[in-house]
Design a protein that fits this description.
Number of strands: 2
Low-confidence stretches: none
Helix content: 25-40%
Number of domains: 1
Largest sheet: 2 strands, parallel
Strand content: 15-25%
Structural class: alpha+beta
Radius of gyration: 11 Å
């Protein structure tokens, strides 16, 4: 496992929200990926 998590920003159209929520949860469950969504984490 890497020393730091892979940061992934998920940008999507509003009609894709349900799919992106599921993808976000799957990536988060991996443990080594730090997913971000527009509505959850703004640009740093």
């Amino acid at each position: 496992m890497p020393d730091r998590k892979l940061r992934v920003f998920l940008c999507h159209a509003s009609q894709d929200k349900p799919i992106v929520r599921e993808l976000y949860q799957r990536l988060l469950a991996e443990g080594w990926i730090d997913p971000m969504r527009e509505c959850v984490a703004p640009y740093p």
